[in-house]
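In keeping with the milestone schedule agreed at the kick-off meeting, the structural modelling team has produced records for the first pair of proteins. Each record is given below as a sequence line and a C-alpha coordinate line. The laboratory manager (R.T.) confirmed that both were archived under the project's standard naming scheme.
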Amino acid sequence: MISKNTHKIHLKDLFWDYHFKENQLKALLNGDVDKVGHLDRNALYARILTSMNWYQIMDLIPGEKIKEALSDEVIERIRFKDLREKYYFAKRLLFK
Protein backbone atom coordinates (compact mmCIF):
# COMPACT_ATOMS: atom_id res chain seq x y z
CA MET A 1 0.00 0.00 0.00
CA ILE A 2 1.34 3.42 -0.92
CA SER A 3 1.31 5.83 1.98
CA LYS A 4 -0.30 9.23 1.56
CA ASN A 5 1.78 10.44 4.49
CA THR A 6 4.99 12.15 3.42
CA HIS A 7 6.60 12.56 6.84
CA LYS A 8 7.37 10.24 9.72
CA ILE A 9 4.69 10.04 12.38
CA HIS A 10 5.90 10.57 15.94
CA LEU A 11 3.49 9.53 18.66
CA LYS A 12 5.14 11.81 21.18
CA ASP A 13 4.09 14.80 19.03
CA LEU A 14 0.47 13.93 19.84
CA PHE A 15 1.28 14.24 23.52
CA TRP A 16 3.10 17.57 23.55
CA ASP A 17 1.46 18.25 26.91
CA TYR A 18 3.06 15.21 28.58
CA HIS A 19 6.59 13.85 28.88
CA PHE A 20 6.22 10.48 27.20
CA LYS A 21 9.03 8.92 25.22
CA GLU A 22 8.41 7.65 21.70
CA ASN A 23 9.50 4.11 22.57
CA GLN A 24 7.07 4.00 25.52
CA LEU A 25 4.15 5.04 23.32
CA LYS A 26 5.14 2.55 20.60
CA ALA A 27 5.26 -0.23 23.21
CA LEU A 28 1.75 0.75 24.33
CA LEU A 29 0.47 0.85 20.76
CA ASN A 30 2.01 -2.56 19.97
CA GLY A 31 0.55 -4.14 23.11
CA ASP A 32 3.88 -4.72 24.82
CA VAL A 33 2.70 -2.76 27.90
CA ASP A 34 -0.79 -1.98 29.22
CA LYS A 35 -0.11 1.58 30.37
CA VAL A 36 2.39 4.40 30.14
CA GLY A 37 1.94 6.59 33.18
CA HIS A 38 -1.80 7.30 33.36
CA LEU A 39 -2.30 6.56 29.65
CA ASP A 40 -3.92 3.28 28.58
CA ARG A 41 -4.19 1.93 25.04
CA ASN A 42 -7.76 3.15 24.55
CA ALA A 43 -6.75 6.70 25.46
CA LEU A 44 -3.84 6.43 23.02
CA TYR A 45 -6.19 5.27 20.26
CA ALA A 46 -8.61 8.10 21.04
CA ARG A 47 -5.82 10.68 20.78
CA ILE A 48 -4.65 9.18 17.49
CA LEU A 49 -8.20 9.20 16.07
CA THR A 50 -8.71 12.79 17.18
CA SER A 51 -5.38 14.12 15.94
CA MET A 52 -4.59 12.39 12.65
CA ASN A 53 -6.13 11.91 9.24
CA TRP A 54 -7.30 8.48 8.08
CA TYR A 55 -4.18 7.71 6.03
CA GLN A 56 -1.89 8.54 8.95
CA ILE A 57 -4.03 6.37 11.22
CA MET A 58 -3.80 3.45 8.81
CA ASP A 59 -0.02 3.91 8.57
CA LEU A 60 0.39 4.05 12.32
CA ILE A 61 -2.00 1.48 13.78
CA PRO A 62 -1.19 -2.13 12.86
CA GLY A 63 -3.93 -3.71 10.73
CA GLU A 64 -4.82 -6.31 13.34
CA LYS A 65 -5.42 -3.53 15.90
CA ILE A 66 -7.78 -1.35 13.83
CA LYS A 67 -10.88 -3.13 15.13
CA GLU A 68 -9.72 -2.49 18.70
CA ALA A 69 -8.97 1.16 17.86
CA LEU A 70 -12.52 1.58 16.51
CA SER A 71 -14.20 -0.02 19.52
CA ASP A 72 -17.18 1.75 21.09
CA GLU A 73 -15.13 2.38 24.23
CA VAL A 74 -12.46 4.26 22.23
CA ILE A 75 -14.88 6.17 20.02
CA GLU A 76 -16.89 7.36 23.03
CA ARG A 77 -13.73 8.98 24.43
CA ILE A 78 -13.65 11.36 21.46
CA ARG A 79 -14.97 14.74 22.51
CA PHE A 80 -16.33 15.90 19.16
CA LYS A 81 -19.69 14.41 18.12
CA ASP A 82 -19.09 14.76 14.37
CA LEU A 83 -15.77 12.92 14.67
CA ARG A 84 -17.40 10.16 16.74
CA GLU A 85 -20.05 9.76 14.02
CA LYS A 86 -17.34 9.57 11.35
CA TYR A 87 -15.59 6.71 13.16
CA TYR A 88 -18.83 4.84 13.88
CA PHE A 89 -19.55 5.06 10.14
CA ALA A 90 -16.05 3.76 9.28
CA LYS A 91 -16.48 0.95 11.79
CA ARG A 92 -19.80 -0.10 10.23
CA LEU A 93 -18.24 -0.15 6.76
CA LEU A 94 -15.13 -2.06 7.79
CA PHE A 95 -16.67 -4.60 10.15
CA LYS A 96 -20.15 -5.48 8.85
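The second protein of the pair:
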Amino acid sequence: MIDKNIDMTSLSLNTVEIPTANANARTIVALKKDGGHVTGYQLSDGQVVNKDMAVALARQGEIAGVGIAHRDGSEYLKSIPDGTESNNLSHLPSV
Protein backbone atom coordinates (compact mmCIF):
# COMPACT_ATOMS: atom_id res chain seq x y z
CA MET A 1 0.00 0.00 0.00
CA ILE A 2 1.32 3.44 -0.93
CA ASP A 3 1.06 6.26 1.58
CA LYS A 4 -0.40 9.16 -0.42
CA ASN A 5 0.65 11.60 2.28
CA ILE A 6 4.38 11.28 1.61
CA ASP A 7 6.05 14.57 0.74
CA MET A 8 7.84 13.63 -2.50
CA THR A 9 9.94 16.82 -2.44
CA SER A 10 11.85 15.48 0.57
CA LEU A 11 12.95 12.28 -1.18
CA SER A 12 16.43 12.13 -2.71
CA LEU A 13 16.02 10.39 -6.02
CA ASN A 14 19.00 9.24 -8.08
CA THR A 15 18.17 9.27 -11.78
CA VAL A 16 20.47 8.55 -14.69
CA GLU A 17 20.39 10.15 -18.13
CA ILE A 18 22.24 8.12 -20.80
CA PRO A 19 23.38 10.26 -23.73
CA THR A 20 24.19 8.74 -27.12
CA ALA A 21 27.93 8.73 -27.69
CA ASN A 22 29.39 10.04 -30.94
CA ALA A 23 31.39 7.66 -33.15
CA ASN A 24 34.64 9.37 -32.11
CA ALA A 25 33.76 9.70 -28.40
CA ARG A 26 36.53 9.30 -25.87
CA THR A 27 36.38 7.02 -22.83
CA ILE A 28 37.37 7.60 -19.22
CA VAL A 29 40.62 5.81 -18.38
CA ALA A 30 41.39 7.16 -14.88
CA LEU A 31 39.91 9.17 -12.02
CA LYS A 32 41.34 12.36 -10.55
CA LYS A 33 40.77 12.34 -6.79
CA ASP A 34 41.30 14.74 -3.92
CA GLY A 35 40.97 13.33 -0.43
CA GLY A 36 39.28 10.21 -1.77
CA HIS A 37 36.62 12.18 -3.65
CA VAL A 38 36.44 12.15 -7.44
CA THR A 39 37.17 15.65 -8.74
CA GLY A 40 37.77 14.87 -12.40
CA TYR A 41 38.51 12.29 -15.07
CA GLN A 42 41.36 11.46 -17.44
CA LEU A 43 40.09 10.73 -20.95
CA SER A 44 41.47 8.28 -23.48
CA ASP A 45 43.22 11.11 -25.34
CA GLY A 46 45.12 12.09 -22.16
CA GLN A 47 43.04 15.18 -21.37
CA VAL A 48 42.06 15.63 -17.71
CA VAL A 49 38.75 17.39 -17.11
CA ASN A 50 36.87 18.36 -13.96
CA LYS A 51 33.49 16.81 -13.10
CA ASP A 52 31.42 19.66 -14.54
CA MET A 53 33.29 19.60 -17.85
CA ALA A 54 33.01 15.81 -18.02
CA VAL A 55 29.25 16.00 -17.52
CA ALA A 56 28.99 18.61 -20.29
CA LEU A 57 31.13 16.50 -22.64
CA ALA A 58 29.13 13.35 -21.89
CA ARG A 59 25.87 15.22 -22.53
CA GLN A 60 27.26 16.27 -25.94
CA GLY A 61 28.14 12.64 -26.76
CA GLU A 62 31.88 13.24 -26.39
CA ILE A 63 32.40 10.57 -23.66
CA ALA A 64 31.26 6.98 -24.23
CA GLY A 65 30.17 4.39 -21.67
CA VAL A 66 28.79 6.75 -19.04
CA GLY A 67 25.49 8.12 -17.87
CA ILE A 68 24.80 11.36 -16.06
CA ALA A 69 23.44 10.77 -12.59
CA HIS A 70 21.48 13.40 -10.67
CA ARG A 71 21.32 13.50 -6.89
CA ASP A 72 20.63 16.26 -4.41
CA GLY A 73 20.90 18.93 -7.09
CA SER A 74 24.28 17.85 -8.43
CA GLU A 75 25.36 15.87 -11.49
CA TYR A 76 28.14 13.34 -11.87
CA LEU A 77 29.15 10.54 -14.22
CA LYS A 78 28.28 6.92 -13.61
CA SER A 79 29.21 3.76 -15.51
CA ILE A 80 26.49 2.30 -17.68
CA PRO A 81 25.86 -1.20 -16.31
CA ASP A 82 26.98 -3.81 -18.84
CA GLY A 83 27.76 -6.81 -16.64
CA THR A 84 31.52 -6.14 -16.72
CA GLU A 85 32.89 -4.78 -13.46
CA SER A 86 36.41 -4.16 -14.78
CA ASN A 87 35.23 -1.15 -16.82
CA ASN A 88 33.25 0.47 -13.99
CA LEU A 89 34.50 3.91 -13.01
CA SER A 90 35.10 2.68 -9.46
CA HIS A 91 37.65 0.16 -10.78
CA LEU A 92 39.73 2.69 -12.71
CA PRO A 93 43.14 3.88 -11.50
CA SER A 94 43.66 7.34 -10.04
CA VAL A 95 45.90 10.02 -11.54
